[in-house]
């Protein structure tokens, strides 16, 4: 296994960073499509980040964004501990570039149990659906622009990991739109790189972890 570091673009919901990452970190950040994502990798050494781009500022910056994190060691589900949560923030405007969560099973041989109740929040990085995503054929999808979503409640979930009710990773949230039946849908880039849609009503909750 190669330990060589390579310069890669790592995407977040509010921009991206250019960082030197190992092969193992690349595997973590690869969710099946052509892009690499920062959230599954977690906290990087700031000296490994050469520059970043902030969507809010619409500007590149040299060096690393600010990284804020905490270690709650909180049990979020049976046999699952939230070890660390943090965010990459623009040093100029303070906007979030990306968020991450690091979990650990208390008993590696046992399954994860029911999740602890949490309050839904649009700025958390994991989305759960009621069932495994089924392919849907939607001839027309209209995506939201900033004018139709002035509060940014939809755009903030772009790049979040999407999980099914049995805790299997489905893919990554790509965008929110309206299909030909005028229903709000979530467009998901699956692990194999293909896109599928989920009716918004089938999304159970947006939070730190939903099982």
Q: In a few lines, what is going on in this structure?
A:
With 211 residues, the protein is mainly beta. It has one helix at 23-29; strands at residues 6-12, 15-21, 36-37, 49-54, 59-62, 66-70, 74-77, 80-89, 96-105, 126-129, 141-143, 161-163, 169-179, 184-190, 195-199, 203-207.
SSE layout:
Blueprint: E1 6-12, E2 15-21, H1 23-29, E3 36-37, E4 49-54, E5 59-62, E6 66-70, E7 74-77, E8 80-89, E9 96-105, E10 126-129, E11 141-143, E12 161-163, E13 169-179, E14 184-190, E15 195-199, E16 203-207
Parallel strand pairs: 1-3, 10-12
Antiparallel strand pairs: 1-2, 2-4, 4-5, 6-8, 7-8, 8-9, 10-16, 11-13, 12-13, 13-14, 14-15
Give an overview of the whole structure.
The chain has 211 residues and is mostly beta strands. It folds into two domains: 6-105, no CATH class; 126-207, PRC-barrel domain (SH3 type barrels), CATH 2.30.30.240. It has one helix and 16 strands. Strands 10, 11, 12, 13, 14, 15 and 16 form a seven-stranded mixed β-sheet that branches. A five-stranded mixed β-sheet has the order 3-1-2-4-5. The model is unreliable at 118-155 (pLDDT under 50).
Primary descriptors:
44% strand, five-stranded mixed sheet, 211 residues, 2 domains, mainly beta, 1 helix, seven-stranded mixed sheet, 3% helix, SH3 type barrels
Distance between the termini: 33 Å
Question: What characterizes the major β-sheet?
Answer: 7 strands, mixed
- Beta-strand level of the residues, as a percent range? 35-45%
The helicity comes to: under 10%
Low-confidence stretches: 118-155
- Total count of helical runs of at least 4 residues: 1
């Amino acid at each position: 296994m190669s330990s060589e570091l390579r310069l890669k673009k790592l995407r977040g919901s509010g921009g991206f960073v250019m960082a030197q990452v190992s092969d193992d970190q690349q595997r973590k950040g690869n969710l099946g499509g052509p892009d690499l994502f920062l959230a599954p990798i977690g906290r990087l050494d700031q000296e490994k980040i050469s520059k970043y781009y902030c969507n809010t500022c619409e500007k590149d910056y040299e060096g690393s964004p600010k990284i804020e994190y905490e270690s709650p060691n909180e049990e979020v589900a049976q046999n699952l501990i939230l070890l660390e949560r943090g965010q990459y923030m623009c040093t100029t405007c303070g906007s979030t570039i990306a968020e991450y969560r690091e979990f650990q099973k208390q008993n590696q041989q046992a399954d994860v149990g029911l999740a602890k109740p949490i309050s839904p929040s649009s700025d958390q990085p994991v989305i759960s659906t009621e069932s495994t995503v089924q392919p849907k054929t939607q001839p027309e999808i209209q995506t939201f622009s900033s004018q139709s979503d002035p509060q940014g409640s939809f755009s903030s979930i772009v790049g979040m990991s999407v999980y099914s009710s049995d805790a299997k990773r489905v893919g990554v949230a790509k965008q929110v739109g309206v299909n030909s039946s005028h229903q709000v849908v979530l467009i998901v880039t699956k692990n194999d790189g293909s896109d599928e849609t989920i009716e918004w009503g089938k999304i159970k909750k947006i939070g730190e972890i939903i099982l």
